[in-house]
Amino acid sequence: MRAEEYLIQRFGLLMSINDLADLLGRSPDGVRVSLYTDTDVSRKLKPTMVKVGRRVYFRTLQVKDVLNLDN
């Protein structure tokens, strides 16, 4: 199974902050803090963000590309 298929099966097309934290092995608060500071990782992950109302999601396929999770 390719990384793309695995991530879509596990998280769907959009990932919540909790899903992203689980993938990165960090706490959800740690992910929030790192996203709102000016770091290399935050600059790469911010374009993958989608706001739906007050909630923030991340496009799963773009996260895969940012994190270089290709097999």
Q: How would you describe what is shown here?
A:
This is Plasmid-related protein. It comes from Halomonas sp. H10-59. The chain has 71 residues and is α+β, with helices and mostly antiparallel strands. 54% of the residues lie in helices and 17% in strands. The chain contains five helices and three strands; from the N terminus they run αβαααββα. A three-stranded antiparallel sheet has the order 1-3-2.
Name its key features.
5 helices; Plasmid-related protein; alpha+beta; globular; 3 strands; 71 residues; three-stranded antiparallel β-sheet
Percentage beta strand: 15-25%
Sheet with most strands: 3 strands, antiparallel
Kindly state the percentage of residues in helix.
Answer: 40-55%
Order of helices and strands: HEHHHEEH
Helices and strands: which structural class?
Answer: alpha+beta
Count of DSSP H/I helices: 5
Rounded to an integer, what's the Rg over CA atoms? Answer: 12 Å
pLDDT averaged over residues: 93
Strand order of the largest sheet: 1-3-2
Oligomer: single chain
